[in-house]
Write a structure and sequence with these properties.
- The protein is α+β, with helices and mostly antiparallel strands and 566 residues long.
- The chain folds into 3 domains: 27-154, Immunoglobulin-like (Sandwich); 162-385, Rhopdopsin 7-helix transmembrane proteins; 406-561, Reverse transcriptase/Diguanylate cyclase domain (Alpha-Beta Plaits, 2-Layer Sandwich), CATH 3.30.70.
- The chain has 18 helices and 17 strands.
- It has helices at residues 2-22, 41-46, 146-149, 162-177, 179-192, 195-214, 217-221, 226-251, 259-281, 287-296, 299-314, 318-342, 352-395, 406-418, 432-439, 441-455, 480-498, 522-537, and strands spanning 26-28, 31-35, 52-53, 64-70, 80-84, 90-97, 102-108, 113-114, 120-124, 132-140, 152-154, 423-429, 461-467, 470-475, 508-514, 543-545, 549-550.
- Strands 3-2-4-10-6-7 form a 6-stranded antiparallel β-sheet. Strands 13-14-12-15-16-17 form a 6-stranded mixed β-sheet, sandwiched between helices. The chain has a 5-stranded antiparallel β-sheet with strand order 1-11-5-9-8.
- A hairpin with a 4-residue loop joins β6 and β7 (102-108).
- α9 packs antiparallel against α11 (299-314), α10 packs antiparallel against α12 and α12 runs antiparallel to α13.
C-alpha cells in the first residue's frame, strides 16, 4: 500500500514537471479552414477568406478540415505532424515555400504511425527548408474535435527526450503495479469464489491495457498502427466502465444498495459495451455529432453510478467507502470529458494525466476494499462454520449420555471403515423397562448414564447410543471382539457402583459381527442386531457372534472378567 501511495505521489509531481518538457519546440496552429473531399487542398489553402484564425474551437462538420502552421525561419524546422488519435480517413500534408512551391504528402489512415506521445498519431512532413513558410495539414473525415484542436508540428517525435522517456518509464512502472492485484485476486477467488473478484480482475486488466494503449509504452514495446490503437482505446473504455459497474453491483454488500440500483448497474454495463463497440466499428455513421452523442450517452451511467455510491454509503456499506475514494479521480475524469466535450466554446480534453493517477488510486483502494471484504467474509464464514459444527455436534450427540447418536454413526461410518474399524457390536440392557416401571425414569436415566461410562470409547473403540437402552460399538484391532466383551461385562459393575439400591443386578446382551466388503452401516448392524436377539432368546446376559456365543453367570459380578473363548 505504501509503495502504491508513493508511486501515486511521484506520478503527480513528475507529471507537473514533465508537461513543459513534452511541449518544447512545438508549433501550433491558430488558423483553420474547411472544405469538401472533392476540393483541392492547395486551392483551399490559397483562399485567405476561408481561414478562421484565433479560435481554438474547431468544427468537424465539414468533410475536410485544414490546419495552417506558420513557420519562423529562425526557429527549429519541424519534421513531423502530430495529432490526437481518433478515427479519420486520411491526412494531406503540404509544405509551401515563400516562392509558392508546394510539396505534398498524403497518408491514408491505415498507414498512420503511432507517436511516442501517448494517444497521438504522427506523420512525416514533406521536405521542409528555411524557405518554407507554411505547413498545411488537411484531415479527412475527422471524428473528434481533439484531433484538430491538439494538432501540432515538432522537429522530433514526442517522447524521445530524456524527460519524456522517464515519464514513459514511470507509466510502465505504473502498469507493472497493476499486475499485483491480479495475483491477489487469484488467491482471493480460490478462497471466496465470489464473482466480484472476477469483475475486479477484468477492471484491473482493462485499466492496465488502457495505460499501455493510450501512452507511448505500447509504441515503445510493440509499435502498433495508430488506427488499431484508436478503436482499441474506444472498446477498452467501454470494458472499463462495464467492469466497474459490474464490480460495484457484485461488491456492495447484500442489502446495502437499493434493489433497483443493483438491477440498473448490469444494464449500464451492457449499455457501455454497446456504445463503445458500435462507436469503434462505425466511427463515421453520424460523424459531425457522433463523438458528442457518444460522450453524452455515458452521462446516465455516471449519474446511476453516483447515486449507487451515495445510496450504499448512506446504508453503511464498508465496500462503498473504499470505492468512493478509489473511483473519485475517475469520476472527475469522466466529468471533465463530459463537460468539455458537450459545452459549446470549451476545448475538448481527456485529462489523461489525471486518468493515469486515477488508475492506480482506483486499483489500490478497490484492492484494499477487496482485502477488507475478504477478511469480513472469511470471519463470517468461519463463524458460520463454527456454529454449523456446533449445531452438528448437538444434532449428533445424545443429550443424556454424551455419546454420539445414530446420525453420527451413519455419517462417520465410511470414514471409520477406511481408518480400519472392522467390527460392530450391538448392546441392549436386559429387563430395562422394569427398572423404569419400578424405580422411575430418573433412575432409568442414571442407569443409561452409568452404562455409557462403562463403554469407555477410545482411539480403537467408538461408542454410540442408538435410542432407548440400545448401544452400538465400532471397533478395530485383532482383539476387537474381546474389547467389546469386556465393555459388556463392565456394565453391571458400573451400574451397581453408580446407581445403588436396584433390586437386582443389571446385565446386558450383545451381538458382534465383522464387516464384509464395502457395506454401509445398515448391513452389519442388521446382522449384529439379529445376533443380539439370539442372545436374548438364549437367556440374556451373554454375547452372540457370527462364530460363537459366550454365556455368563447371571448374578456373578465376576462375569465381567470371563474370557472370550471358542
Amino acid at each position: 500500500m505504501l509503495a502504491g501511495l508513493g508511486l501515486l505521489v511521484t506520478l503527480a509531481l513528475f507529471s507537473l514537471w514533465a508537461i513543459p518538457a513534452m511541449n518544447t519546440a512545438e508549433i501550433r496552429s491558430f488558423c483553420w479552414a474547411s472544405g469538401s473531399l472533392s476540393e483541392d487542398v492547395a486551392a483551399i489553402a490559397r483562399q485567405g477568406d476561408r481561414w478562421s484564425c484565433g479560435n481554438r474551437k474547431v468544427s468537424i462538420e465539414a468533410e475536410r478540415v485544414l490546419l495552417r502552421f506558420d513557420l519562423d525561419p529562425k526557429e527549429a524546422l519541424p519534421h513531423y505532424f502530430l495529432s490526437r488519435r481518433s478515427a479519420i480517413d486520411a491526412v494531406h500534408l503540404l509544405a509551401i515555400d515563400g516562392d509558392g512551391t508546394v510539396r505534398q504528402n498524403t497518408i491514408p489512415a491505415v498507414a498512420l504511425a503511432s507517436s511516442m506521445a501517448g494517444g497521438y498519431v504522427k506523420a512525416a512532413l514533406p521536405a521542409v527548408s528555411r524557405e518554407t513558410r507554411q505547413i498545411i495539414a488537411a484531415v479527412d473525415l475527422p471524428s473528434h474535435p481533439m484531433t484538430l484542436e491538439r494538432a501540432y508540428l515538432a522537429s522530433t517525435d514526442a517522447g524521445q527526450g530524456s524527460a519524456d522517456m522517464r515519464f514513459l518509464l514511470l507509466l510502465a512502472g505504473l502498469a507493472g503495479t497493476l499486475i499485483m492485484p491480479l495475483i491477489f485476486n487469484a488467491a482471493f477467488y480460490r478462497v471466496l469464489g465470489e464473482s466480484f473478484v472476477i469483475w475486479h480482475s477484468v477492471l484491473t486488466l482493462s485499466l492496465l491495457t488502457t495505460i499501455l494503449v493510450t501512452s507511448g509504452v505500447s509504441v515503445m514495446l510493440f509499435d502498433p498502427r495508430a488506427m488499431t490503437l484508436s478503436w482499441m482505446t474506444t472498446v477498452l473504455f467501454g470494458v472499463t466502465v462495464a467492469a466497474g459497474a459490474m464490480f460495484t453491483c457484485r461488491f456492495i454488500e447484500p442489502g446495502l444498495m437499493h434493489p433497483l440500483l443493483r438491477r440498473l448497474l448490469p444494464l449500464c454495463a451492457a449499455w457501455a459495451m454497446i456504445l463503445s463497440v458500435s462507436h469503434a466499428a462505425f466511427p463515421f455513421v453520424a460523424r459531425p455529432m457522433q463523438s458528442s452523442v457518444y460522450t453524452a450517452a455515458f452521462a446516465p451511467i455516471l449519474v446511476i453510478f453516483l447515486i449507487s455510491q451515495i445510496d450504499a454509503l448512506r446504508r453503511g456499506s464498508r465496500a462503498a467507502k473504499f470505492q468512493a475514494i478509489g473511483y473519485a479521480p475517475m469520476m472527475v475524469v469522466g466529468s471533465v470529458r463530459l463537460v468539455t466535450g458537450l459545452v459549446p466554446g470549451l476545448t475538448s480534453t481527456d485529462a489523461m494525466l489525471l486518468f493515469y493517477a486515477g488508475c492506480i488510486v482506483e486499483v489500490l483502494f478497490t484492492t484494499l476494499g477487496m482485502a477488507d471484504r475478504f477478511l469480513t467474509l472469511k470471519r463470517d464464514r468461519d463463524r458460520a462454520r463454527t456454529e454449523a459444527d456446533f449445531l452438528q455436534r448437538l444434532s449428533e450427540t445424545d443429550a443424556l449420555t454424551g455419546l454420539l447418536n445414530r446420525r453420527a454413526i451413519e455419517r462417520q461410518f465410511e470414514m471409520l471403515r477406511n481408518e480400519g474399524f472392522a467390527s460392530l457390536a450391538v448392546i441392549d440392557l436386559d429387563h430395562f423397562k422394569s427398572i423404569n416401571d419400578m424405580n422411575g425414569h430418573a433412575v432409568g436415566d442414571a442407569v443409561l448414564t452409568a452404562t455409557a461410562s462403562a463403554l469407555q470409547p477410545n482411539q480403537d473403540v467408538r461408542a454410540y447410543r442408538l435410542g432407548g437402552e440400545e448401544f452400538v460399538l465400532l471397533l478395530r484391532g485383532n482383539d476387537a471382539a474381546l474389547a467389546a466383551e469386556r465393555r459388556r461385562q463392565a456394565i453391571p459393575v458400573a451400574v451397581a457402583s453408580i446407581v445403588p439400591g436396584l433390586e437386582r443386578l443389571l446385565t446386558a446382551s450383545m451381538g458382534v459381527t465383522d464387516f464384509t466388503g464395502d457395506e454401509n452401516f445398515s448391513e452389519p448392524y442388521a446382522r449384529a442386531d439379529k445376533l443380539l436377539y439370539q442372545a436374548k432368546r438364549a437367556g440374556r446376559n451373554r454375547t452372540f457372534s457370527v462364530m460363537n456365543w459366550i454365556p455368563a453367570h447371571k448374578t456373578s459380578p465376576s462375569a465381567s472378567s470371563r474370557r472370550l473363548s471358542g
